[in-house]
């Protein structure tokens, strides 16, 4: 059984990006500059954004963190986005989700200039992805594709079941896995809360990608022998035996499922680091496309 090690794979990608940055520096060209907007004090979001800033330092990017209070108005956030859109020093930026309830996430997504949308969420970039045109691919789905590719997981002609249909992971994941590419060329079933025979569908899958947001949802009896399982979920579960008071688990019951898999991604250390690596790849792409 192969453990799809996102930590090691993302480190290799960062090393590749660092070489590219050195080439830009040597040629006297601009170094990529990634900015992140964080609204409020959500603990998980703060941890994630801090990891992105550290990753920028590691590869030689410049980075800017715009830290806004939770009571920031929608109008003020949109103005901040406009400022970054119009700042020639910023090559790409993200607005960390989730946002406070009083802010419309769709308005925010639409306000980010497509050429700086390194999260790949803007409808223009989603449309280009759907058509197979060059664009910024959504960071988490692209991270999964990179992982599958670098571990030489065969996807062509395989049945891939995606659990969860969010615009951020599930839906773009289904598009990327079905495209005429490598990895890709899979026959994809996109499942969700209204799928009535989910267990039967999963048992027919060669590859299962779980992005549902429910801890330990996928159990051993839902997976056939030799399947490949990618776990996109991450949750904090209270655990008094841990110094931190909690442990991290995914959407997959790892102990049960791993015993049946030919390959599986762990949580933590699987898809999470790959998401950040993909974000860095998009930012490098942003500066090269100018």
User: What general form does the structure show?
Assistant: globular
Give a quick account of the main beta sheet: strands, pairing sense, barrel closure.
6 strands, parallel
Number of strands: 11
How far apart are the termini? 43 Å
Mean pLDDT: 95
**In percent terms, what proportion of residues is strand?**
15-25%
What does this structure look like?
The strands form three sheets. A six-stranded parallel sheet has the order 1-11-8-7-5-6. A three-stranded parallel sheet has the order 3-2-4, with helices on both faces. With 290 residues, it is an alpha/beta fold. It has helices spanning 6-26, 43-59, 74-85, 105-111, 123-130, 139-150, 170-178, 198-203, 254-258, 271-288; strands at residues 2-3, 33-39, 62-68, 92-95, 159-163, 187-191, 207-210, 227-231, 235-238, 246-249, 261-264. The mean pLDDT is 95. It folds into two domains: 28-113, Rossmann fold (3-Layer(aba) Sandwich), CATH 3.40.50.10860; 139-272, NAD(P)-binding Rossmann-like Domain (Rossmann fold, 3-Layer(aba) Sandwich). Helix 6 packs across helix 7 (170-178) and helix 6 crosses helix 10 (271-288). Helix content is 40%, strand content 18%.
Short summary:
With 290 residues, the protein is of the alpha/beta class.
Give short descriptive properties of this protein.
10 helices; 6-stranded parallel sheet; Rossmann fold; 3-stranded parallel sheet; alpha/beta
């Amino acid at each position: 059984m192969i453990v799809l090690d996102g930590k090691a794979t993302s480190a290799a990608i960062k090393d590749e990006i660092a070489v590219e940055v050195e080439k830009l520096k040597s040629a006297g060209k601009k170094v990529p500059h990634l900015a992140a907007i964080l609204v409020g004090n959500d603990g998980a979001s703060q941890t994630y954004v801090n990891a992105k800033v550290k990753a920028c330092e590691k590869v030689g990017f410049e980075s800017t963190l715009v830290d806004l209070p939770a009571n920031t108005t929608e109008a003020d956030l949109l103005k901040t986005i406009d400022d970054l859109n119009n700042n020639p020093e910023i090559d790409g930026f993200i607005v960390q989700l989730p946002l406070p309830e009083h802010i419309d996430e769709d308005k925010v997504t639409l306000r980010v200039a497509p050429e700086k949308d390194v999260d790949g969420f803007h409808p223009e970039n989603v449309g280009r992805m759907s058509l197979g045109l060059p664009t910024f691919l959504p960071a988490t789905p692209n991270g999964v594709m990179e992982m599958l590719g670098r571990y030489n997981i065969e996807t062509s002609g395989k049945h891939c079941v995606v659990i969860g249909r969010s615009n951020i992971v599930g839906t773009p994941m289904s598009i990327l896995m079905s495209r005429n590419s490598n990895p890709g060329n899979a026959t994809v079933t996109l499942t969700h809360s209204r799928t009535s025979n989910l267990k039967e569908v999963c048992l027919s899958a060669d590859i299962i990608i779980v992005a549902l947001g429910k801890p330990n949802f996928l159990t051993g009896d839902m997976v056939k022998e030799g399947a490949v399982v990618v776990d996109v979920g991450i949750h904090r579960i209270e655990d008094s035996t841990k110094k931190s008071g909690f442990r991290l688990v995914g959407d997959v019951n790892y102990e049960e499922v791993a015993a049946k898999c030919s390959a599986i991604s762990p949580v933590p250390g699987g898809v999470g680091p790959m998401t950040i690596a993909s974000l860095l790849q998009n930012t490098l792409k942003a500066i090269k496309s100018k």
